[in-house]
Amino acid sequence: LSDCYTKSSDLALMNGVQALVRLLLEQSRIDKEKGLKTQGYVSGYPGSPLGTLDLELNRAKKYLNDEGIVFQPGVNEELAATAAWGTQMIHLYDQPKIDGVFSLWYGKGPGLDRAMDAIRHANMGGSSKLGGMLLAVADDPIGKSSTLAYQSEQSLISAGIPIFYPANVHEVVPLGLQAYQLSRYAGICVGLKITADTADSSAVVDLTSLRPKFKNLLNIENVHIQKHEPALDREETLFTKRLPASKNFIFQNKINKIIRNPKVKNLGIIAVGKACTETIDALESIGIVDPEKNGIGIFSCKVPWPLNAEEIKNFINGYKEIFVIEEKRGVVEEQVAHILYNHDQKPILSGKFDGKTGDPKGALLPHRTLLGHIPGVEMPHEFLSSNLSNNDCFWTPADWAWIGGLFDVLLPSLYFGIPVISFRSSKFDPEFTFDLMEKFEVKNTFLPPTSLKMMKSFNLYKSRDKLHLRTVGSGGEALGEELLNWGKEILNVGINEFYGQTECNLTVSNNGLIMKQKLGSIGKPVPGHKVKLMKDDGTFISKSDDEGEIVVQSNSPSIFSGYWNNDKETQKKIIDGWLHTGDYATVDDEGFFYFKGRKDDLINSSGYRIGPSEIENTILSLQEVEMVAVVGVPDELRGEIIKAVIVPREKSLLKNRNENLKYKIKEHVKQNLAAHEYPRLIEFVEELPLTTTGKIKRNLIRKNHKEVKNERKI
């Protein structure tokens, strides 16, 4: 168990607290190897998650004594900080026999607040050239064992103290050594943020990787602690010399790193501290094992403050959107915003603030909506029942964190007392879906349109005799004749299309048991809901086949009560007693609705307003096509023209332009729809960008549009 302190090579088990002790030992050993006569000093006040550091320092006393490191527990945090800073003054008043003292102060977040006067003086005064002063701050961001859910960055920044943030146990010693080196180089105190996840966890650490390589930098004059330096001079030194020197040190030593750098750049993620490993884990959990193949780059930010503008600009170059992931309040995001403000390239910046639509909107769903959903669930599933005669059993690939999985499947199943199958896959797999539904004799399922299209592509002709499906519901996009017919032949059941959104879910639906199925229709309003179509001028559609926005009367039983803390957006959503969905449709003489698309997805070309769904379904009917997405792209003459992005069934078609297939697709759409609805541009891709709920990211396709020269011939 002492290997973590004694060995210099091989592997050793250590926890986050032991890593701090090893940091002190390692700094002493490095100094000795360089011929420096230094000693160490550590003082502080215990508090979770560093509540056991004083105990571990006492247990390691023999090793500390061997390295000349003094552990002096503090009466309180400010006295400990004062003593730690005092070690940096030994050359000012005495003639010591040693070259310097490297000191470590430790305390939890509230203790940092208490000690800020001493710490602020220490940083203004500076550290010694061969000493260095670190502040190990124990952060408890979720209030696990503290009266405050603490974040230390703001306090350290107010004192002008750079912050190093180890993501795990492995990084504590290397980052700590870099922090000591920075303290000596720039004459500045350096914070070391230690969270509960790091302090409380253990890891097998490669001891040969503890020491980072340092870049030799020119010494800076007049940045270290001086005797009786005036207050204004100290302030000037900190902000005009020490902090710029710190930024340069961090940049030159590449402490912050680009760890994923794709050739095609869609989304750049800046992940701070432990959020970096958590982000990679999260991407893997949804099937993105290789982010670079998906156009995702990752910048690992180990020093959240201060950021070097040059390294941020180097990373963001070429990305359409930058997404900052950090815990609690935004520190890095605000700096990035300042850096990009006057920069030529300004990607969308998102994080705590959504760069596209403002702060994320939380829809408040009162308890009444749980019961209000029941008729909407009953319709597409032809009256769910716990009776033994039906013996229903529910499953969906939709995530339960999405309203489609939670309110349309899980909670209704519990309400009716029928079994619900629980399985979380990292990525939708059509073959596994068939096997699961057969094995567990699933009777009822909600399958998003993209899932159905992938299942059709996987199993085009072969009937699945072992399926026990009674009902299949689907909603979100129009399915089309080909997919509906495939469902009857392969799934042995009709697919009931329905419509809704989080704010007013399951308001229109089909029900094959009591309604005739009309091709392309999402059904009729569910009992209890009043649904109409409204023109852009605010009047209702009176003539069938005229297109309008779907609006739902605001007294519907499943409607939300508003956006959380956002009255302005709520008032935009509900106007004069009608909830505006932002989706467009038509209605026929019998009251059947036909979905056209989201307002943002509608294509305005030469005066025509065109929905993408019917074009996609027409193209999808061709055997050569596996998946397709249709969007509008800018055109000087027509306003917009139609572009089809296609995943071909034969992947060899990706290697060339395939003019014959493009011509076939265009003619097929002209013959089955209308001349103004054919795609003038066609692009073949390996896969389409999808949301976690299986919807096509048309906005991303529009952003990534690059037209091949001379492709537009008509």
Protein model, in words:
The radius of gyration is 32 Å and the shape is elongated. The termini are far apart. It contains 25 helices and 31 strands. The protein is an alpha/beta fold. Helix 2 (16-33) packs across helix 10 (169-186).
Kindly summarize this structure in a few lines.
The chain has about 725 residues and is of the alpha/beta class.
What features would you highlight for this structure?
31 strands, alpha/beta, six-stranded mixed sheet, 714 residues, six-stranded parallel sheet, 25 helices
SSE order and pairing:
Layout: H1 3-6, E1 11-15, H2 16-33, E2 38-44, H3 53-59, H4 61-66, E3 69-71, H5 77-86, H6 90-93, E4 100-108, H7 109-114, H8 116-125, E5 133-139, H9 153-158, E6 163-164, H10 169-186, E7 190-195, H11 196-199, E8 202-206, H12 231-252, E9 257-260, E10 267-272, H13 275-285, E11 296-301, H14 309-316, E12 321-325, H15 332-341, E13 348-350, E14 363-364, H16 368-372, H17 374-378, E15 394-395, H18 403-416, H19 430-439, E16 444-446, H20 449-458, E17 471-475, H21 481-491, E18 495-501, E19 504-509, E20 524-525, E21 531-534, E22 548-553, E23 562-563, H22 567-573, E24 574-575, E25 578-587, E26 593-598, E27 603-605, E28 608-610, H23 612-620, E29 625-635, E30 639-648, H24 659-672, E31 681-684, H25 698-703
Helix pairs in contact: 2-10, 5-8, 19-20
Largest sheet: 6 strands, parallel
Oligomer: single chain
Alpha-carbon Rg, integer: 32 Å
Morphology call:
elongated
Low-confidence stretches: none
Helix-strand makeup class: alpha/beta
Please report the total strand number as a whole number. 31
Q: What is the helix tally?
A: 25
Q: What number is the mean pLDDT?
A: 89
Strand order of the largest sheet: 3-2-4-5-7-6
Gap between N and C termini, in Å? 75 Å
Helix content: 25-40%
